[in-house]
């Protein structure tokens, strides 16, 4: 089903939640999955309909986000599979739906706390950190640091991915420095570490994030600055082991890049650009997951164990 068909199936409350995701008003895979969980709970708890109709709506919403957001972040496919594990259960009840969603939330929260603990150890002693592109995991980690850190935030212009950090980190009383992407190299020498999130993680440690993450990784390697990827194993895409790789994610950025231009000027240029890039393992100091501070080569073993656990219906 297309976007408008799915939206039309939803209540007004759920349409507002749906729009937060599809319009980009809220960023971060973790935030989006949390919102989808709320949509599922609203369908289960608030709609007056037979359980089979509720299940059909939930499945339609789940499949829509797996087919759309799942292209950039495999977390959506893993999370939707876990949160909708009740769909083929006989005599499914509202309580079964609630249990599936709330169990996911509980496991995800516990994993995030572990990542924060390990990430704080990884940057212990640091006074200045650079963050590239919004990540709800990275936000929670930086909010858990002692106030007064100097935080460089490049704009991440392709999706305006730096700005969502500003409000929550301002409240955390850090010293925020918002800079153009092109200035990353000039301030990197002052940084003790760089931290990014990931949309998808391959078993070899390759980490996918917004365009610019790859440039920053190369710069970090050149200047010997630790480059950390903070991500739950939920984002692992095991299909890479079968030679099945992500499609290129690109978009027309004309509206963003030519804002304020004369129409004739804007019409004269092509602004089609890649949005998501893979950062190769050789540029990554560590992938910080709920399993620990992993050198990229160690991701494979943890990914296999994780996949086996969730395939058997285990917890996150």
UniProtKB/TrEMBL annotation:
Signal peptide start-end: none
One Pfam family, short name: IF-2B
Native source organism of the sequence: Copranaerobaculum intestinale
Keywords (A to Z) from UniProt: Initiation factor, Protein biosynthesis
Entries under InterPro entries matching the protein: eIF2B_alpha/beta/delta, IF-2B-related, IF_2B-like_C, NagB/RpiA_transferase-like
Bilayer-crossing regions: none
UniProt keyword Signal present: no
A GO term for molecular function: translation initiation factor activity
Keyword Protein biosynthesis: yes
Family (UniProt): Belongs to the eIF-2B alpha/beta/delta subunits family.
Name used for this protein in its record: Initiation factor 2
